[in-house]
Amino acid sequence: MELKAVIFDVFGTTLRIAEGAHPYRKLMRAGIKQGRRPRPEDASILMSGAYGLMEAADLFGIEVSPPELDRLDALLRAEVASIEPYTDAVLCIAALKAAGLKVGICSNLALPYGDAVTRHFPDLDAYGFSFEAGVLKPDRRIYESVLQAMGVGAGATWMVGDSQRCDQLGPEEVGIKGHLLQRAGGELADLMQFGEVALRAVDR
Protein backbone atom coordinates (compact mmCIF):
# COMPACT_ATOMS: atom_id res chain seq x y z
CA MET A 1 0.00 0.00 0.00
CA GLU A 2 1.20 3.51 -0.80
CA LEU A 3 2.76 5.41 2.09
CA LYS A 4 0.52 8.33 3.06
CA ALA A 5 1.50 9.27 6.61
CA VAL A 6 4.31 9.11 9.16
CA ILE A 7 4.03 9.24 12.94
CA PHE A 8 6.97 10.40 15.06
CA ASP A 9 7.80 9.80 18.70
CA VAL A 10 8.87 12.88 20.68
CA PHE A 11 11.69 12.68 23.21
CA GLY A 12 14.81 11.07 21.84
CA THR A 13 13.35 11.24 18.34
CA THR A 14 12.16 14.74 17.44
CA LEU A 15 12.92 16.70 20.63
CA ARG A 16 15.49 16.64 23.41
CA ILE A 17 15.64 18.29 26.81
CA ALA A 18 18.78 20.43 26.93
CA GLU A 19 18.59 21.19 30.66
CA GLY A 20 16.88 18.41 32.58
CA ALA A 21 15.67 19.49 36.02
CA HIS A 22 13.29 16.56 36.67
CA PRO A 23 10.67 18.49 38.68
CA TYR A 24 8.21 15.59 38.79
CA ARG A 25 10.93 13.29 40.10
CA LYS A 26 11.73 15.83 42.81
CA LEU A 27 8.04 15.97 43.72
CA MET A 28 7.90 12.19 44.05
CA ARG A 29 11.04 12.24 46.22
CA ALA A 30 9.29 14.68 48.52
CA GLY A 31 6.52 12.11 48.79
CA ILE A 32 9.02 9.43 49.76
CA LYS A 33 10.32 11.65 52.57
CA GLN A 34 6.72 11.95 53.78
CA GLY A 35 6.36 8.17 53.85
CA ARG A 36 4.67 7.55 50.51
CA ARG A 37 6.00 4.46 48.79
CA PRO A 38 6.60 4.77 45.04
CA ARG A 39 4.43 2.52 42.90
CA PRO A 40 5.31 1.04 39.50
CA GLU A 41 2.32 2.75 37.91
CA ASP A 42 3.11 6.28 39.18
CA ALA A 43 4.76 7.49 35.97
CA SER A 44 2.01 6.02 33.81
CA ILE A 45 -0.64 7.74 35.89
CA LEU A 46 1.15 11.09 35.59
CA MET A 47 1.31 10.79 31.81
CA SER A 48 -2.27 9.61 31.32
CA GLY A 49 -4.07 12.68 32.63
CA ALA A 50 -3.94 16.46 32.84
CA TYR A 51 -1.63 16.62 35.85
CA GLY A 52 0.51 19.66 36.46
CA LEU A 53 2.71 19.68 39.55
CA MET A 54 -0.03 20.85 41.91
CA GLU A 55 -2.50 18.32 40.54
CA ALA A 56 0.11 15.57 40.82
CA ALA A 57 0.82 16.49 44.43
CA ASP A 58 -2.90 16.35 45.23
CA LEU A 59 -3.31 13.08 43.33
CA PHE A 60 -0.56 11.32 45.25
CA GLY A 61 -1.25 12.97 48.60
CA ILE A 62 2.09 14.78 48.72
CA GLU A 63 2.21 17.91 50.87
CA VAL A 64 4.12 20.74 49.22
CA SER A 65 4.45 24.24 50.65
CA PRO A 66 3.63 27.17 48.36
CA PRO A 67 7.31 28.27 48.18
CA GLU A 68 8.44 24.74 47.32
CA LEU A 69 5.70 24.40 44.71
CA ASP A 70 6.82 27.71 43.20
CA ARG A 71 10.40 26.42 43.09
CA LEU A 72 9.38 23.19 41.38
CA ASP A 73 7.19 25.10 38.95
CA ALA A 74 10.11 27.37 38.04
CA LEU A 75 12.25 24.29 37.39
CA LEU A 76 9.51 22.85 35.21
CA ARG A 77 9.14 26.05 33.19
CA ALA A 78 12.91 26.23 32.67
CA GLU A 79 13.05 22.59 31.62
CA VAL A 80 10.23 22.98 29.10
CA ALA A 81 11.85 26.16 27.76
CA SER A 82 15.11 24.25 27.24
CA ILE A 83 13.49 21.65 24.99
CA GLU A 84 14.80 21.88 21.45
CA PRO A 85 14.31 19.92 18.24
CA TYR A 86 16.86 17.68 16.64
CA THR A 87 18.00 19.29 13.40
CA ASP A 88 17.40 16.11 11.44
CA ALA A 89 13.83 15.98 12.78
CA VAL A 90 13.08 19.48 11.49
CA LEU A 91 14.54 18.69 8.08
CA CYS A 92 12.93 15.26 7.82
CA ILE A 93 9.45 16.45 8.76
CA ALA A 94 9.69 19.38 6.34
CA ALA A 95 10.72 17.04 3.51
CA LEU A 96 7.91 14.59 4.21
CA LYS A 97 5.30 17.33 4.34
CA ALA A 98 6.66 18.83 1.11
CA ALA A 99 6.18 15.42 -0.50
CA GLY A 100 2.51 15.47 0.48
CA LEU A 101 2.68 13.08 3.42
CA LYS A 102 0.65 13.64 6.55
CA VAL A 103 2.73 13.85 9.71
CA GLY A 104 1.66 13.13 13.26
CA ILE A 105 3.12 12.84 16.75
CA CYS A 106 2.50 10.06 19.24
CA SER A 107 4.10 10.35 22.66
CA ASN A 108 3.92 9.37 26.30
CA LEU A 109 4.41 12.62 28.19
CA ALA A 110 3.05 14.73 31.02
CA LEU A 111 0.78 17.69 30.33
CA PRO A 112 3.30 20.57 30.59
CA TYR A 113 5.58 19.07 27.95
CA GLY A 114 2.95 19.13 25.22
CA ASP A 115 3.49 22.87 24.75
CA ALA A 116 7.08 22.25 23.65
CA VAL A 117 5.89 19.91 20.90
CA THR A 118 3.36 22.33 19.47
CA ARG A 119 5.81 25.22 19.83
CA HIS A 120 8.46 23.55 17.71
CA PHE A 121 6.11 21.65 15.38
CA PRO A 122 2.94 23.77 15.19
CA ASP A 123 1.56 22.60 11.86
CA LEU A 124 1.40 18.82 12.07
CA ASP A 125 -1.69 16.86 11.11
CA ALA A 126 -2.20 15.08 14.44
CA TYR A 127 -0.91 15.14 18.00
CA GLY A 128 -1.36 11.96 20.01
CA PHE A 129 -0.44 12.89 23.58
CA SER A 130 -0.94 10.31 26.32
CA PHE A 131 -2.21 12.94 28.75
CA GLU A 132 -5.06 13.67 26.32
CA ALA A 133 -5.70 10.12 25.13
CA GLY A 134 -5.84 8.74 28.67
CA VAL A 135 -3.70 5.76 27.63
CA LEU A 136 0.00 5.25 26.96
CA LYS A 137 1.93 3.61 24.18
CA PRO A 138 1.90 0.71 23.42
CA ASP A 139 -1.87 0.70 24.01
CA ARG A 140 -3.37 0.41 20.54
CA ARG A 141 -5.92 3.15 21.26
CA ILE A 142 -3.35 5.94 21.21
CA TYR A 143 -2.07 4.92 17.77
CA GLU A 144 -5.62 4.57 16.51
CA SER A 145 -6.46 8.08 17.73
CA VAL A 146 -3.59 9.50 15.65
CA LEU A 147 -4.66 7.55 12.57
CA GLN A 148 -8.21 8.82 12.98
CA ALA A 149 -7.04 12.42 13.35
CA MET A 150 -4.96 12.13 10.18
CA GLY A 151 -7.69 10.32 8.27
CA VAL A 152 -5.42 7.51 7.08
CA GLY A 153 -5.32 3.75 7.46
CA ALA A 154 -2.71 1.85 9.43
CA GLY A 155 -1.45 0.07 6.32
CA ALA A 156 -0.54 3.40 4.71
CA THR A 157 1.31 4.69 7.78
CA TRP A 158 4.82 4.35 9.21
CA MET A 159 6.05 5.23 12.69
CA VAL A 160 9.55 6.00 13.91
CA GLY A 161 10.93 6.36 17.42
CA ASP A 162 13.61 5.22 19.83
CA SER A 163 11.60 2.62 21.75
CA GLN A 164 11.26 -0.83 20.25
CA ARG A 165 8.28 -1.60 22.46
CA CYS A 166 6.39 1.65 21.90
CA ASP A 167 7.49 2.86 18.47
CA GLN A 168 8.07 -0.37 16.56
CA LEU A 169 6.30 -3.37 18.06
CA GLY A 170 3.31 -1.46 19.45
CA PRO A 171 2.43 0.24 16.16
CA GLU A 172 2.87 -3.02 14.27
CA GLU A 173 0.14 -4.59 16.43
CA VAL A 174 -2.21 -2.03 14.86
CA GLY A 175 -0.87 -2.53 11.33
CA ILE A 176 1.50 0.46 11.23
CA LYS A 177 5.02 -0.28 10.02
CA GLY A 178 7.36 0.59 12.89
CA HIS A 179 10.95 1.80 12.56
CA LEU A 180 13.44 1.81 15.45
CA LEU A 181 15.67 4.89 15.68
CA GLN A 182 19.04 4.27 17.35
CA ARG A 183 20.85 7.59 17.58
CA ALA A 184 23.80 6.06 19.42
CA GLY A 185 24.47 3.86 16.42
CA GLY A 186 22.39 1.24 14.69
CA GLU A 187 20.74 0.28 11.45
CA LEU A 188 18.70 3.50 11.54
CA ALA A 189 20.88 6.16 13.19
CA ASP A 190 19.19 9.43 12.20
CA LEU A 191 15.98 10.82 10.76
CA MET A 192 17.51 12.00 7.50
CA GLN A 193 18.22 8.36 6.75
CA PHE A 194 14.66 7.48 7.70
CA GLY A 195 13.29 10.30 5.56
CA GLU A 196 15.16 9.07 2.51
CA VAL A 197 13.67 5.61 2.94
CA ALA A 198 10.18 7.07 3.40
CA LEU A 199 10.45 9.27 0.32
CA ARG A 200 11.55 6.30 -1.76
CA ALA A 201 8.41 4.49 -0.58
CA VAL A 202 6.32 7.44 -1.77
CA ASP A 203 8.00 7.44 -5.18
CA ARG A 204 7.35 3.76 -5.86
UniProtKB/TrEMBL annotation:
Keywords: Hydrolase. GO terms for molecular function: hydrolase activity. InterPro entries: HAD-like_sf, HAD-SF_hydro_IA, HAD_sf, S-2-haloacid_dehalogenase. This is Haloacid dehalogenase-like family hydrolase. It comes from Pseudomonas veronii 1YdBTEX2.
